[in-house]
Specification:
single chain, 346 residues, alpha/beta, binds coproporphyrinogen III
């Protein structure tokens, strides 16, 4: 059973409800990972999926940034690609290169090799990890669950590897829309069941990562990506707040703001006041510090963070990066980012 210890720090949940908080809350996308020496030490001993599948290891890695950097939320250590794995597709993580899916989905026959699984069975290790993390956190900060948006997961399932353009995934959709829609719906159904179980196991809120939504033109984004994200928001929002992060898809902020999500992640290529104009006043914005700016000298980081905080204002903002933290960021720079947010007085 999930533990129901009351949260000692619920700043992020308050911000998602639009309540006034004593300061802006902060966490960093991909905060559990490769810039932390404590993570590298575990990486040298266990393979990527061993780290994901062993609840004790996943718990330890999830807690590292809370202890070391002092963020206001933990995010489950896992990956968006455990979903295709659970659906029956082989997924490898090649060190220093990235994901490899040796049998990409390209035909009707390929589609027949995958299924919508029982997530309580195939992803039970994630649910076990969540229960353990909640216990170990003991209410210190909320736990964020997550999944990839169907379009982003589809990109990897069809392209078979990372890409700057995901041209094969796009052309698969444009050439075989019916088949592609079937696959997107299967991913959506799996993701809905998966996120609901994450919440049942103890996740306090969830984030949907659409890392490649911005590769689509605006109308296609709505049809190929957002339509499925909307189904996820509809299904999960009665259980927990949902943050949607569709990188590069600033053009769809009005539609996303009307989705029922509690928060929208934005990247660094849009000014906060424009994002606010597009999204309206009734939704929390999350972001949008350029992750590469964490490589600047600390005084410059502090100055830029203060500007970001002042631009977003005191309410309905969760400070974060505009995408995941880079592996070569020094830990004290990450800490400077977090500390500057915590010290800032609006
Ligand atoms: O945010 C966190 O700290 C929680 C853990 C987390 C990971 N992946 C762990 C991971 C989360 C939220 C993700 C999400 C994820 N995974 C996304 C969406 C967010 C984004 O950054 O766009 C995507 C597209 C993936 C797919 C993926 N997994 C890629 C492209 C890679 C290789 C490149 C990279 O970013 O590291 C992975 C591997 C991966 N997932 C690592 C980690 C810590 C690195 C593995 C290692 O070298 O130890």
């Amino acid at each position: 059973m999930p533990t129901n210890t009351p949260l000692k720090n619920d700043l992020i949940l308050k911000a998602l409800r639009g309540e006034t908080t004593e300061r802006t809350p902060v966490w960093m996308m991909r905060q559990a990972g490769r810039y932390l020496p404590e993570y590298i030490a575990l990486r040298n001993k266990y393979s990527f999926f061993e780290r994901c599948q062993n609840p004790e290891l996943a718990c330890e890695i999830t807690l590292q940034p809370v202890d070391i950097v002092g963020v206001d939320a933990a995010i489950l250590f896992s990956d968006i690609l455990v979903v295709p794995q659970a659906m029956g597709q082989e997924v490898q993580l090649i060190e220093k290169i990235g994901p490899l899916l040796p049998h990409p989905i390209q035909t009707l026959e390929d589609l027949a090799t995958i299924k919508v699984p029982d997530v309580k069975d195939t992803l039970s290790y994630v649910l076990e990890a969540i229960k353990l993390i909640k216990q170990e956190l003991n209410g210190r900060v909320p736990l964020i669950g997550f999944a990839g948006a169907p379009w982003t997961v589809f990109c990897y399932m069809v392209q078979g590897k990372g890409s700057k353009t995901f041209d094969e995934a796009k052309s698969f959709y444009y050439k075989n829309p019916i088949l592609a829609q079937q696959l997107l719906q299967m991913i959506t159904d799996t993701t809905i069941a998966y996120l609901k179980e994450q919440v049942n196991s103890g996740a306090d809120l969830v984030q949907v990562f659409d890392s490649w939504g911005g590769l689509l033109e605006p109308d296609d984004f709505l049809e190929i990506s957002f339509k499925y994200i909307q189904q996820i928001v509809d299904a999960v929002k009665p259980l927990a707040p949902v943050i949607v992060f569709a990188k590069g898809a600033w053009f769809a902020l009005p539609e996303m703001a009307a989705s029922g999500a509690s928060g929208l992640g934005i990247d660094w290529t849009i000014r906060p006041h424009i994002a606010r104009q597009y999204a309206g006043d009734n939704i929390t914005l999350q972001g949008n510090f350029d992750p590469a700016k964490l490589l600047a000298p600390i005084p410059e980081i502090k100055q830029s963070v203060k500007k970001m905080l002042s631009d977003f204002g005191p309410t309905r903002h969760i400070a974060n990066l505009g995408h995941g933290i880079l592996p070569n960021v020094p830990v004290d720079h990450a800490r400077a980012f977090v500390d500057t947010v915590k010290e800032y007085q609006h």
